[in-house]
Structures are given as C-alpha cells and as structure tokens.
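Dear colleagues,

For the upcoming journal club I promised to circulate an example of a predicted protein-ligand complex. I picked one with 1,3-dihydroxyacetonephosphate because it came up in last month's discussion. The inputs are reproduced below in full, followed by the predicted structure.
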Amino acid sequence: MVNYKDLGLVNTREMFKRAVAGGYAIPAFNFNTMEQMQAIVQAAVETKSPVIMQVSKGARNYANATILRYMAEGAVAYAKELGCEHPEIVLHLDHGDTFELCKDCIDMGFSSVMIDGSHLPYEENIALAKKVVDYAHQFDVTVEAELGVLAGVEDEVSAAESHYTKPEEVIDFSTRTGCDSLAISIGTSHGAHKFTPAQCTLVNGVLVPPPLAFDILHEIEKKLPGFPIVLHGSSSVPMDEVNTINQYGGHLEAAIGIPEEQLREASKSAVCKINIDSDSRLAMTAAIRKHLAEHPGDFDPRQYLKPARENMKKMYIHKIVNVLGSDGKLAQC
Ligand code: 13P
C-alpha cells in the first residue's frame, strides 16, 4: 500500500476549492507516454499551474499500471528539478468502472479516482460511487462521480447518445454518495468527432456546433452552491492540427470539438476540472506526420518525438493560459 502523499502528489480538494472561488478551472490532461508527461509538467511549471495528470483504463493497459504510477512520481521530481518548489500534481484515475480498479489505483498511490457509474441505473450508480468514496476517504483520496451520459468514444468508454444531467438529481446524488466532485453532461462528448456536420451551423465557412447547455449548468450550480463540477470531453479539436494531419497523409473527416470560448465561459463557473485528451493526441500526431513527411530519411524516434513534445507543450500552455485560466494559481510558487 502506497499513500500518494509519500509520492509528493496532492488530492483535488484544496485546488478545487480555490478554482471554484477564483473562477478558473484546473486542467486534467490524459497521459500514457513519457513525452506527454514531460510536456504536461513543463507546461504546468512554466505557467505555475496546478495540474491533474489522468490515466484511463486503456492507458493502464497500454503503458502498464506500475510504470504510469512511477511516471507520476517522476513528474513531481521533474517539476522540482525544473524549479517549481511546491508543485501541485494530482494523479487521477479517469473513468474507473469498478470498485476493484479504483481500489487498486488508491492502493498504488493515486491521489484521486473517478468512479463512472453513469451508464448504470440511478440507485446502482449511487451504491457503487458510495462504496468507492467510503474506501477512498480513509486515505484522503478524492473521488469524482458522474451523473448523466456523454456521447462519444474514448478508450473503453463509449455511448451512442448523450443524456443531459438532471439538475433535480444532483443534491440527492452528491449527498448520498459523498463524492468530492461531480462530472456532468451538458453537451460535451469524448473524441475528435463530437458533432456531425448536420448538427452544426455554417458561419463564415466554419462549422459551429450547438452551444453547451449552460442553463443546466447554472441550475446545477444553484442546487449545489460551490460544489466542484467537472467537464469531460472538452477538447476543442483545433482545425490547424486537423489540417496538418490531413495535409501530411492523414484522413480525419468532420473532426469537430467544443469552441474554446464556451470552455472559457464554463471555467468561470463552478466547473473546476476540464478534461482534455484528444487535443493532445492531435497535437502529437500532427507534429509527427509533418516531421516524417519533411524528413523521410529520419528513423530515430527522438527526431520526431521532440517536435511532437514541443507541439503538445504549446497546446497545454495555451489551454492553461487562454482557456482555463489556471496560470499563476499554485498555492505556493
Ligand atoms: P476529449 O476526447 O474531448 O479530449 O475528452 C477527454 C476526456 O473527457 C477524458 O475523460
């Protein structure tokens, strides 16, 4: 049994409290490679931002659970080496689907877990989340639960259509589960194809997706004043990265994300954690495709992974500074 505090990690409680009060959101970036981890830490250190590094079940299967946990411990040491004396790094399980998976992560040093029972009937979602909370809180590990269903595909998580969170359920759900934060469904979805062109409006040649359901978010905020709210599926799918991928041999059709202005707006509310994974995948793939097309003789992975890491870091910094507003928000620099 390893406690996250021994690894230099923090849970989400204090950073969420400050984010809700301060009107900004903490970035939750998924990682499963060393280059992603390095780029996330460099971006967080340079911007003096707290950061959540999250690992999905798919990432654990890909990279190995033990390696990822040591990478998170390494991330803390790396942040200090880069000059940040008091980094605030959370190691979070994204979309835990069973009590056993959450327990395994808690036992190996995660400081935060998500139990996603959103696909279950309401009472079963409550029972599962409460079981995880009861275990996690013994070790001061914070727990995110979800109400409402997001559409889209991401690793093992997929749903054909979304069901918005019902504001009338949130008080009962958060009270009975004891969860520390609540992921809600207000129109975001997982992956790089969040909307079909038919769902969008064409404005000056650009496909603009339907707006997020801010009315539902505000109703939830009224019911749970100051309670930390989480948005999944919040990549904006930048067109320049999609165009670069397609220019250099890729084939991404109708890739559409959440406009950044809407995420900026959401960050000012009780939304205090915003999940971004697809944008990192796009930034990495675009840089690798471009490099290999322009340097067909290169075969040393460092030659193309270095620009990939730089491109991801640029994207992470942009999100922190221009979208979420978490720059300069470390409790102690
Ligand atoms: P994106 O696919 O929009 O990046 O969402 C990631 C996510 O919500 C991880 O849980």
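Two points we might discuss: The pocket of 1,3-dihydroxyacetonephosphate is lined by residues 30, 94-95, 154, 190-191, 232-235, 275-279 (CB under 6 Å). The mean pLDDT is 95.

See you all on Thursday,
B. R.
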